[in-house]
Task: structure prediction
Amino acid sequence: MSKHFETKAIRTQTERSQHAEHSTPLFLTSSFVFEDAEEMRAAFAEEKKMNIYSRFTNPNATEFVDKMVALEGGEAGYSFATGMSAVFNTFAALLNAGDHIISSDSVFGSTHSLFKKFLPKWNINTSYFPADDLDAIEALITPTTKIIYAESPTNPGVQILDMEALGKIAKKHNLLLVIDNCFATPYIQQPIKFGADLVIHSATKLIDGQGRVLGGAVVGRKELIREIYLFARNTGPSISPFNAWILSKSLETLAVRIERHCETALRIATDLEKHPKVNWLKYPFLKSHPKYELAKKQMKLGGNIIAFEIEGGLDAGRNFLNNIKMCSLTANLGDSRTIVSHPASTTHSKLSDEEKSAVGITNGMIRISIGLEHHEDIMNDVLEALS
Ligand SMILES: *Cc1c(COP(=O)(O)O)cnc(C)c1O
Result:
């Protein structure tokens, strides 16, 4: 019988060395040795599964990605130095000049820059559909379209996209569905079950969960991962063994951490929604969320990101940040430390008001990434800043 999530996250482990260690050690080595010419030949011919060089594979990188594969329910995977190298290598390995991507308009900032500024250098262009209107996708499909790309929940607007519907559209038109599952983690949702061909992660966020290291992974169909692996092993976006070691250890506690993140987020969202200075609040597991039913269907828990609007626009948003005492003002999210941010004056300051509202951002909007501190201390900090 297939093991449960928590067990796979702990017991998927690289082979023990001659020292019979219980916990996987750190393999800081750039290369691996062979017994003789025949073994070396077989390793290079891929007849014998062995590590050759840490740009290709390393025991720590393999253990980390094997866990990700087990948790996402994929066939294979490859790990990367960052989430963005996972995103870029996926496109670079699978697309040719002239190919076309259809993406949700609400994607991570650097992914957006990749679509707008860099992929067009190789004549790979992207069309966008509104994250809340999947019916717009089919009209964007052209003979050169290869990939549908999306995130759910989105950041910072906390929109929810119907992954099963995306999977059906992709299948009907013979396109690849690629989902960035960073905000949910495989504990909350497994996009492959809904029809995704590939799932991308920035492990920097909830997977590390303690704001220490950067990392990324792509998990999914074997033949696609093979293409991505061959591209990556020749271009070198490999994860460091140290970061992979940290991330593999982090996965051992992912389930308990996510449970607590989400329990605290739901409590705080429920209370904060009633505050007189809060115009609106979005959290997937509150009935007030426009996609509440869908969120309940495709997610196990509501996640750790809350978005809300403070009465008073841009100034009120900035004032709130200036009066926060404990929570951190930083560019990360998914940390054990609660993080507050004001997208309109920072990450999304270059967008017009119309562009902002299209991705669910308003001038008075605050995003909170709920950490693992006690819920009363987080709530008190937020309440004091609001008053
Ligand atoms: C942070 C993030 C990335 C990029 O990850 P890095 O590890 O910072 O390169 C990609 N997608 C999403 C949704 C993210 O939040």
Observations:
- Residues 82-84, 108, 110-111, 151, 155, 180, 182, 202, 204-205, 214, 216 surround pyridoxal-5'-phosphate (CB under 6 Å).
- Residues 99 and 144 are 5 Å apart (CA to CA).
